[in-house]
């Protein structure tokens, strides 16, 4: 029977950017995003833009946020990134306008192929459309699109696309009811 052999792990098609760029981002992320010392939203938006992210006006980025590669990130206007959010964006992550990522939410664009001896990396983008709410400690898996105003409840895991104006819960997340908006 074939076994996992991590010495064979290679991903020549996956590029993370230049070494200098990654080092500069590592320390910027550590000092200004993962830290609680700099709660200035405008500064954080500017730093993300300097590293290639597309960031709309009014975006709120709370302390202790971890962003893997800002050059693979787009955040629409007036979206909120809560404390402890981890955006593990090996592939593109698109967060549209008025999206809320609650505390410790996790956007995961990469996984490994458990069927392959070398444990090959597999990456897929994530799209969060307008008005989406990802609850505290919820996980969005690679390749998921959360359609307009979908909601993923606390601690839930989205492994498939979320329908618009729908509320999901569980692991894997299932739809429990429609999200009805009021004025």
Textual characterization of the structure:
The chain has one domain: 3 Solenoid (UDP N-Acetylglucosamine Acyltransferase, domain 1), CATH 2.160.10. The protein contains two helices and 19 strands. The chain has helices at residues 19-33, 41-50; strands at 54-55, 60-61, 66-67, 73-75, 80-81, 86-88, 93-95, 100-101, 106-108, 110-112, 121-123, 126-128, 133-134, 139-140, 145-146, 151-152, 157-158, 166-170, 173-178. The strands form four sheets. The chain has a seven-stranded mixed β-sheet. Strand 18 and strand 19 (173-178) form a beta hairpin. The chain is globular and about 60 Å long. The N and C termini lie far apart (60 Å). The relative contact order is 0.11. The model has no long low-confidence stretch (mean pLDDT 96).
What is the compact description of this entry?
The protein has helices at residues 19-33, 41-50, and strands at residues 54-55, 60-61, 66-67, 73-75, 80-81, 86-88, 93-95, 100-101, 106-108, 110-112, 121-123, 126-128, 133-134, 139-140, 145-146, 151-152, 157-158, 166-170, 173-178. It is of the alpha/beta class. The chain is globular and about 60 Å long.
């Amino acid at each position: 029977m074939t076994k996992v052999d991590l010495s064979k792990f290679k991903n020549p098609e996956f590029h993370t950017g230049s070494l200098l760029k990654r080092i500069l981002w590592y320390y910027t992320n550590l000092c200004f995003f993962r830290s609680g010392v700099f709660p200035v939203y405008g500064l954080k938006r500017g730093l993300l833009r300097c590293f290639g992210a597309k960031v709309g006006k009014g975006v709120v980025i709370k302390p202790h946020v971890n962003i893997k590669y800002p050059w693979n990130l787009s955040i629409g206007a007036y979206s909120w990134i809560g404390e402890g959010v981890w955006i593990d964006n090996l592939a593109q992550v698109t967060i549209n306008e008025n999206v809320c990522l609650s505390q410790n939410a996790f956007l995961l664009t990469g996984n490994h192929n458990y069927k392959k001896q070398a444990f090959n990396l597999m990456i897929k983008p994530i799209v969060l459309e307008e008005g989406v709410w990802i609850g505290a400690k919820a996980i969005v898996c690679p390749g998921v699109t959360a359609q307009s105003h979908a909601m993923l409840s606390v601690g839930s895991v989205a492994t498939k696309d979320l329908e618009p104006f729908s509320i999901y819960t569980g692991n894997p997340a299932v739809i429990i009811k429609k999200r009805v908006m009021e004025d």
